[in-house]
Specification:
Blueprint (H helix, E strand, L loop, with lengths): L3 H6 L8 E2 L2 H9 L5 E3 L1 H8 L8 H14 L4 E4 L7 H13 L4 E3 L7
Parallel strand pairs: 1-2, 2-3, 3-4
């Protein structure tokens, strides 16, 4: 298994399947995927809510649960950062504290 730096520096496509709990992460690991993506859409479906109803703490908690049992790099769906720039800073710090390998944000205009 390549480490995260090798994956980032490499020229190969990195397939990171959507996971939504530790069990799905372990299944992806067993299938040989090199990284994981905790997506808001899939996680929302499992929670029986829409992605827009998920909270930052729910996402980070689930990321920690996944990282506890699975060593693969985890990318967390940061939605729109859960608010204004100050909320975005908190989102980044919480995701970093949870030891996620990365975060993705949606680019949407503020109304």
């Amino acid at each position: 298994m390549a480490n995260l730096r090798e994956m980032i520096d490499g020229s190969s496509l990195i397939e990171a399947p959507v996971v939504f709990n530790p069990l799905s992460a372990k299944l992806a690991e067993a299938a040989g995927f090199p990284a994981l993506y905790l997506g808001g859409g899939g996680f929302g479906y499992v929670q029986c809510v829409t992605e827009a109803n998920l909270t930052l703490t729910e996402m980070v908690r689930t990321g920690i649960d996944i990282r506890t049992v699975c060593p693969l790099p985890l990318i967390l769906d940061g939605a729109c950062g859960w608010g204004d720039p100050m909320h975005l800073l908190r989102t980044i710090k919480m995701v970093d504290a949870a030891a996620s390998a990365g975060i993705s944000f949606e680019d949407q205009p503020r109304e």
